[in-house]
Design brief:
alpha/beta; Rossmann fold; 6 helices; 2 domains
Length: 214
C-alpha cells in the first residue's frame, strides 16, 4: 500500500479593510466544541488547529487552498495564510508538499459551482486522509466541499475523511468557537444507506451509530 498523505482543504476569507485601512481579518482564539483535539492558540484560519493537531513530524502533508477571485481573498492568502502554514510546517517538521491553489470566480452560478467541484476532486488522490474547513467561501462552498469529500470517500481507493470543521466568531462577545462537524458528514452516508435498506425508526438507529444521547 502506498504511503498516505494528509490533505487539508480550506477556502480563503473575504474580509477586507475597515474604514481606517486596517485588515479586518484578525487572529481569534477558537474554543473547541465537540473535540478537545482542536485546542490551539490564536489564528485567522480554523484549519490551522486541525493541521496542528492532526499532522505529525512523520506525515506527508498537502494543503489545497480555494481562492475566490478578488483582491481581499488573495491578500489574506499571501499576507496571512501562507506565513501561518509555513511557520507551522517548520514547527512540526512534517514533510510538506506545499499549497495547491484552486481559483474560482466570485459567483454562485451553478456552472461555477460545478466547475469548483470538479477542480476539488481533481486534487483528491488515492491514499489521502482528508481534512476540510467549511468556514469561509461563498454560501455554496461548504456544500461543494462536502460533495467532493463524499465523492472521494466513496470512489477513491483507501481515501478517508478524518475531520471537517467550522469556525464561528461572535462579534458581540469577541470570541470564537471551532466545531467538529465530521459526524454530520458520516450521518449523510448513514441516512442514504438506511433509506436503501428501508429501516424503520431511522432516527433511533442514527443516534446509536453516532453515539448521540437524547
Amino acid at each position: 500500500m502506498d504511503e498516505r498523505t494528509k490533505t487539508f482543504f480550506v477556502s480563503m476569507p473575504f474580509q477586507g479593510k475597515d474604514k481606517d485601512g486596517n485588515d479586518m481579518l484578525k487572529p481569534v482564539l477558537y474554543a473547541p466544541v465537540g473535540s478537545d483535539r482542536l485546542e490551539y492558540g490564536e489564528t485567522r484560519f480554523p484549519i490551522i488547529p486541525v493541521i496542528a493537531n492532526y499532522a505529525t513530524a512523520n506525515d506527508i502533508v498537502r494543503v489545497v487552498a480555494i481562492i475566490t477571485e478578488g483582491d481581499n481573498f488573495q491578500h489574506n492568502f499571501d499576507a496571512y495564510f501562507v506565513p501561518e502554514v509555513t511557520t507551522l510546517s517548520g514547527k512540526i517538521g512534517f514533510q510538506f508538499e506545499g499549497i495547491d491553489v484552486i481559483r474560482t470566480p466570485d459567483s454562485e452560478d451553478i456552472s461555477v459551482q460545478l466547475a469548483l467541484f470538479g477542480d476539488i476532486i481533481d486534487k483528491v488522490r488515492d491514499n489521502d486522509e482528508l481534512y476540510a474547513c467549511i468556514t469561509y467561501g461563498t454560501k455554496p462552498t461548504p456544500i461543494i466541499l462536502s460533495m467532493a469529500m463524499n465523492y472521494a470517500y466513496r470512489l477513491k481507493e483507501n481515501t478517508t475523511v478524518e475531520c471537517i470543521v467550522y469556525g464561528r466568531y461572535d462579534h458581540v462577545a469577541k470570541s470564537g468557537r471551532i466545531f467538529d462537524t465530521t459526524a454530520l458528514f458520516y450521518m449523510d452516508s448513514i441516512v442514504n444507506r438506511l433509506a436503501e435498506l428501508n429501516i424503520k425508526n431511522p432516527t433511533d438507529t442514527i443516534k446509536v451509530l453516532l453515539n448521540i444521547e437524547d
